[in-house]
Design brief:
Strand content: 15-25%
Number of domains: 2
Number of helices: 12
Shape: globular
Largest sheet: 6 strands, mixed
Structural class: alpha/beta
Mean pLDDT: 94
Oligomer: single chain
Helix content: 40-55%
Distance between the termini: 51 Å
Length: about 300
């Protein structure tokens, strides 16, 4: 069976479905994309007849627009071959399509992530011994807790550690390392080397956050008081730390990663989905993202050098 998985490029919740796929299936191809690229990627597969190369195509931690969703829904082959699993509340309307399942909070009141939804799907549909391992179940829950920020409420520091290791290792090594680890271990743990790295990393994160507190720029955006900061690392922890630090001053925090995208973190009781939508983004009520304009790098260069460039 040939599997294609298309998932979110930016974090451990996007890469974990790839790891799970490779635990279950022998022939897996993965494509990692940003939110604003997934529709073009799927259309390219359809238009180039590459869909025929795969038995099943999973799309995780991403949503499709109405045009692409309708195209899939109206095609018998595409509708049966493509399965979308997502947890962003901004994509909840996609549940009207038969191939799409979007769950923000399940019936038991538990916040879901792409990793947890895909894991439950695999458990239900495939009899695989590896999925039953305690290590795999625990690993998936750590990813879920970190992605939904539940770890902050439960004080599950293992979730934070795993999230930090993703930043330390990078996508490729994180995937390679934990694919091997989960195949060969029945229980989950961090080794002494990882604990040492994490201790150093925590000090680095705290220093980074303290430095960025001094770099927040007040802006009025859509009638709200926003604190804007440029940052390329630790966006989840940075956003939440800034939200707590500036809870009296700002309505929400905006983190601009000039290399990739824009993140929004809630301070006051505001639906950030409505803010992000204005700028082509989506996400959760208190945590969203939006893409950078495709021309932004060229515009910055022109601004810096007064357009005196060729």
């Amino acid at each position: 069976m040939k599997i294609l998985i298309i998932s979110h490029i930016s974090d451990s919740d996007g890469i974990t479905p790839v790891i799970l796929s490779k635990l279950v299936f022998d022939n897996v191809t993965s494509i990692l994309v940003e939110v604003d690229s997934v529709n073009d990627e799927v259309l390219k597969l359809i238009n180039n007849n590459e869909i025929d190369n795969y038995d099943i195509i999973y799309i995780t931690d991403l949503g499709l627009n109405e045009e692409v969703s309708t195209l899939i829904e109206n095609d018998n082959i595409l509708r049966k071959k493509i399965i979308l699993l997502d947890h962003h509340i901004s994509n909840i309307a996609s549940n009207k399509y038969s191939f799409s399942t979007v769950v923000d909070i399940d019936q038991k009141g538990k916040k879901q992530s792409a990793a947890s939804l895909y894991y439950e799907y695999l458990l239900k549909n495939y009899n695989n011994d590896c999925l039953q391992k305690e290590s795999v179940c625990y690993f998936v829950n750590l990813v879920r807790e970190y992605d939904t920020w539940e770890w902050f409420k439960t004080n599950n520091m293992d979730a934070k550690k795993l999230g930090n290791l993703f930043d330390l290792y990078g996508r490729s090594y994180f995937e390679e390392h934990y694919l091997s680890f989960l195949k060969n271990n029945d229980t989950f743990s961090f080794d002494d080397k990882e604990l040492f790295l994490l201790e150093i990393e925590q000090k680095t994160i705290q220093t980074y956050i303290e430095e960025k507190k001094e770099c927040v720029i007040p802006m009025s955006i859509l009638g709200y008081n926003a604190g804007v900061v440029f940052a390329s690392k630790y966006r989840s922890e940075l956003g939440n730390a800034l939200a707590r630090h500036f809870e009296e001053q700002y309505d929400f925090i905006i983190i601009i990663n000039i290399e990739r995208s824009i993140s929004y973190r809630g301070v006051k009781n505001i639906d950030l989905n409505e803010i992000a939508k204005v700028f082509g983004g989506h996400g959760h009520v208190n945590a969203c993202g939006s893409p950078l304009p495709k021309t932004i790098h060229k515009e910055i260069i022109e601004l810096l050098f007064n357009k005196n460039i060729n």
